[in-house]
Amino acid sequence: MGGHKAESTAAVISYIEAHLDQKLDLGAVAEGVGYSKYHLHRMFADTVGITLHDYIQRRRLTEAAKLLAFSQQPIIEIALAAGYQSQQAFTAVFRSMYKQTPLEYRQNGAFYPLQLAFALNKNPTAPNMAAQKVFYAAREDLPDLMRFIPLVVDGFPRLDKSAYLRQAKQYVRQGQALIMRDGPTIMGAAAFSCQAGSIDFLAVHPQYRRYGAARAFLDFMARNVFAGREISITTFREGDKADPGQREAYQRLGFAGAEFLTEFGYPTQRLILPPQKEKGSNGR
What we know:
Elements: H1 3-18, H2 26-33, H3 37-48, H4 52-70, H5 75-81, H6 87-98, H7 102-108, E1 135-136, H8 142-152, H9 161-173, E2 177-182, E3 185-193, E4 198-204, H10 213-224, E5 231-236, H11 246-252, E6 256-263, E7 266-273
Antiparallel strand pairs: 1-2, 2-3, 3-4, 5-7, 6-7
């Protein structure tokens, strides 16, 4: 997994953050950090799970949303600062990601991010998932969980950090929160509702998504929490441009589409995983 790659990607992220108000594309960033475009593209996507272009776009839209919510700066100025040549172009992209026009977002007055700046683990391991354990989260895990949230906020439309903290405390108190660790770093976290038969939160640190952590959580819950029961989870609707890949990841785990929902004003869809058969059932 390589600490060197993580350190190099962290340096790229620092460069992007320092130049968000300037012209930024793959070529400009590659020149700024001294890598070839091919190497930069591959390294960045391998480390954080999305392309450099998508990361920059999501970060700029997040900063634009912050200005819309907390300033009176004209929308056309915000659009130009975000790298768009017209308010019309900015509005089209903003609406596809936030499900509101910039003006509607400003009028609603509530800020929530699409993408916060990644703070990477510079000394990650390549975990042996067969030996990796899922633990029930305890109160002492809450500070690390709060540091984990900015890394996965892209997968949860309109996630409010303060509301999540209150809810996380409740899940931990009720014994309905799970974590996996790579030393001091939380690799992933999950929260569930036994009564509703639902996974209410399932997220994996970007640097660990390729190692099967989501499958480990699901297998643990299917075996120890929802044995013999259907499991539900909600995610982005098909074709939602704000989806960083969450829906596809759930489908790879075996979930299938169910009813459409609107949660906190955001269009989502409920997915269902049928009851898992016990290994060795039917006499096998």
